[in-house]
Specification:
The chain is of the alpha+beta class. The chain is built from 6 helices and 5 strands, in the order ββαββαβαααα. The protein is 34% helix and 11% strand. The longest helix is centred in the C-terminal third of the chain and has 16 residues.
């Protein structure tokens, strides 16, 4: 089966996969793209979020057959041209990660949100980011998304202290 992953054609040997195999395991175990994480296996936590045809999807429950012929983007391709994405910079500025396990999925969900909504409100963010962060950095995540949205719109950067962030 041929897949388009991060802008590159990738051949996946038919002997190595079953069309019902979840995309997550193809990415991690067959293609060695380990930035996408396994969390719950039932699409609840979002650690496995990737983009398929521009939409955030939970790869742990997405069968390989469902993504054939569609562009897939993983966390490995969020940065472009050797430069971190605005979200990645904002994540650092707002000190979002603690344990960091959920962050690749969180970033991919946030990138899908900003691709369709350049100026999300708190309600928009809460509705779109259903990923679970066991460390509870949700206030920092919201502020980081807003900071990245401003950068992507060309508004001068300003990082405001988020309660508990140490800024």
């Amino acid at each position: 089966m041929d897949l388009s992953i991060n802008g590159q054609a990738r051949a996946v040997p038919d002997a190595a996969v079953d069309p019902a195999m979840p995309l997550l395991w193809v990415l991690r175990d067959v293609l060695n793209l380990t930035g996408t994480k396994f969390g719950c296996g039932v699409a609840s936590c979002g650690a496995c979020t990737v983009h398929v045809d521009g939409q955030a999807v939970r790869s742990c429950v997405t069968p390989l057959a469902q993504v054939a012929g569609k562009p897939i983007r993983t966390i490995e391709a969020l940065a472009q041209g050797g430069q971190p994405h605005a979200l990645q910079k904002a994540w650092i500025a707002h000190q979002v990660p603690q344990c960091g396990y959920c962050q690749s999925g969180m970033l991919m969900a946030a990138a899908a949100l900003l691709a369709r909504n350049a100026n999300p409100s708190d309600a928009d963010i809460d509705a779109a980011i259903t990923n679970i962060c066991r460390c509870g950095t949700y206030p920092r995540i919201r502020e980081a998304i807003k900071t990245a949205a401003r950068e992507l719109r060309g508004v001068p950067a300003r990082v405001q202290a988020t309660p508990g962030s140490g800024l």
